[in-house]
Design a protein that fits this description.
The chain has 12 helices and no strands. The chain is rod-shaped, with a radius of gyration of 30 Å. The chain starts with a helix and ends with a helix.
Length: 265
């Protein structure tokens, strides 16, 4: 019985392969189209893709393109070929906006760009594109059933951009370029006023202002000490019980001590 079952499965496999090979070699695009759809329905997406790639140009603007275009895009998506899936699904949604699957296709297209977004430490061009595409989806389908997912993805992408900008500013502080660090943190806080990194950014800005001030030439020290004191006030105003407050208080004590020499002169 077990042997018969194995033989039956093997027979079905060989028939499927034979059908696919015949369609692949056939010059009849309708045969290719039918087998491609059969491969798609069986979730044999790579085989479907190979056939769709051949026949897609033939059906451009013709009857049957709509169904094929959707299946083609979904085949790319299901095999995680996100560049190609994004292009194909967005094209489907734009060409057939009244199709019941247009909303899904547009969302998945935007999601593909999000999948292509790299880790925060790398160039974020793809992240910017992904945010634009996801916002485009949100604007186009404000009542979409995918809205909750779209908002979560968009938020995660924005946090990635925040992290990138924050780490760049933080690096200036780490290498001791405190003047550049203050500028970078100012830009960061201006660009991302609600950032999750705000508390640490305010503290590191204070640290850079403090380090710059106490190591400054006498002619610039008073101005820079006052600037550091302002950075301290910004931190405690934002969060009076900041986890960095004890370190910040030590800095403030030294800032006030250094400023006393200028009040006596």
């Amino acid at each position: 019985m077990k042997k018969r079952l194995i033989l039956s499965i093997l027979g079905l496999f060989l028939v499927s392969c034979s059908e696919y090979q015949k369609a692949f070699k056939s010059e009849d695009t309708e045969v290719k189209k039918a087998v491609a759809k059969k491969m798609y329905d069986k979730q044999k997406y790579n085989k479907a893709i190979r056939l769709y790639e051949i026949i897609a140009p033939v059906y451009k603007g013709k009857s049957g393109e709509e169904e094929m275009s959707y299946s083609f895009g979904m085949s790319y998506y299901n095999t995680k070929q996100y560049y190609l899936a994004a292009y194909q699904l967005e094209g489907f949604a734009s060409s057939y906006p009244r199709d019941s699957r247009a909303e899904e296709a547009f969302f998945l297209s935007a999601k593909c760009f999000a999948e292509l977004s790299p880790t925060y430490s790398l160039d974020q061009t793809e992240t910017d594109k992904a945010i634009y595409k996801m916002q485009e989806f949100i604007d186009r389908y404000p009542n979409s059933t995918y809205m909750a997912q779209a908002n979560v993805i968009a938020k995660d992408l924005r946090v990635k951009l925040e992290r990138k900008a924050f780490e760049v500013a933080k690096q200036y502080n780490t290498i001791g370029d405190h003047k550049a660090a203050q500028v970078a943190f100012d830009i960061f806080l201006s660009d991302f006023p609600g950032t999750v990194f705000k508390e640490e950014a305010l503290f590191l800005k204070l640290d850079s202002a403090f380090q710059l001030a106490i190591n400054s030439v006498p002619a610039k020290m008073q101005e820079r000490l006052n600037n550091a004191k302002g950075a301290y006030q910004s931190l405690v105003k934002f969060k009076g019980d900041s986890k960095f407050k004890s370190k910040a208080d030590v800095m403030l004590e030294q800032i006030d001590k250094e400023l006393q020499q200028f009040s006596k002169s």
